[in-house]
Design goal:
Length: about 350
């Protein structure tokens, strides 16, 4: 089992399995909803991470994604709309020995909760954010969200939305994010792998999951997930390996000057040596941003860990400040405080 030497979270003395994290609550998502697969990935990865059950904490806001704390057999906190990241910040700072996971949606974190979202990323608090991106408001019945593609017909855009959507990866990196990964809800193994990498990372981790809402935005990610196109529409990133994709793995991504381009291996003398090699640990986010912005029809969508750069975390720095203050301060506890300064006896 992988060790987490940089973490202060207590590991389980006994081997846990998937059943240990399955809740006894009835799962009330719609049949066919991509959230079921995300839940399966969480049940897979938590025992693999190896912390004690009591050291996992699920936090959520409002939305279909935010039912998550009921469906995972750990401690949980169901918050209010857009405030999951603020609540999780307080949880982690108050108790650094918890592994804090946030279940949120594209609307919950990037609309009403947008301010909290960018600042938890900027502060680099050691939490794990799982963003269910179904490009719609599902729980409130089909309004367009900050990620809904332009022109989409929804309950609140009967003539097509005219708003420019967010690219979550672009937003995360713009907020100085240290970890960003992307997965699709049709690939439980990929989700499990990136969640494990998220747990390894020291700092704010954001995983965008391209999730299908069968009721209000069915097949919204079809250009990426459809069986007929996915081999050419997805590129699975692996650190230290060249960017190759395609049904016959004959396509690749290379850096041409200051921009990326799709090339075909064997054409014009192009070989694997000409392709961009993925470096998820690179401090400079420039290439990571280019990868996060790729989308069909001109590029495949980048899946896997796009960025995993190490920077000091807010919670570690807070702990350091507290330790330094305690070392300098004569008053160590409440008794010291009550018996400090001038005292007198009342007779």
């Amino acid at each position: 089992m992988f060790e987490f030497p940089e973490k202060t979270i207590e590991r389980s003395a006994m081997e846990l399995n998937k059943a240990d994290f399955v809740s006894d609550q009835m799962v009330k998502w719609c049949p066919g909803c991509g959230a079921h697969a995300i839940l399966a990935a969480i049940a897979n990865v938590f025992p693999k991470i190896g912390y004690r059950k009591e050291n996992f904490m699920m936090v959520s806001g409002i939305g279909c994604s935010s039912r998550f704390p009921y469906y995972v057999n750990t401690y949980g906190f169901h918050g209010i709309h857009g405030r999951a990241n603020a609540i999780a910040s307080g949880v982690k700072i108050a108790n650094p020995h918890l592994s804090v996971w946030i279940a949120t949606g594209d609307g919950d974190s990037m609309a009403i909760g947008g301010n909290h979202f960018i600042h938890i990323i900027r502060r680099n608090i050691d939490v794990n954010i799982i963003m269910f991106n179904n490009q719609i408001y599902g729980l409130t019945k089909g309004q367009y969200s900050p990620t809904t593609p332009m022109g989409s017909i929804t309950k609140t855009s009967p003539q097509g939305t005219i708003e420019h959507p967010f690219n979550p990866g672009e937003l995360v990196l713009g907020a100085q994010g240290t970890f960003f990964a992307r997965a699709v809800d049709t690939n439980v193994k990929l989700m499990t792998d990136v969640m494990f990498e998220s747990a390894r990372h020291d700092g704010t981790s954001v995983i965008e999951i391209l999730q299908n809402c069968v009721i209000y935005a069915d097949k919204t990610h079809e250009a990426v997930t459809d069986k007929e196109v996915r081999d050419d529409a997805q590129i699975h990133l692996k650190n230290g390996e060249p960017l190759i994709f395609g049904k016959t793995r004959n396509k690749g991504i290379r850096l041409n000057g200051s921009h990326l381009e799709v090339v075909t291996l064997g054409e014009n003398g192009i070989t694997e040596d000409d392709l961009l090699v993925h470096d998820q640990y690179e401090q400079d986010p420039g290439i990571h941003l280019m990868l996060a912005k790729m989308y069909p029809p001109h590029f495949p969508v980048a899946l896997g860990v796009i960025r995993s750069a190490m920077y000091p975390t807010y919670d570690d720095l807070v702990e350091d400040q507290i330790a330094q203050a305690k070392a300098k301060e004569k008053i160590k506890n409440v008794d010291d405080l009550l018996n400090s300064g001038d005292t007198w006896e009342i007779k």
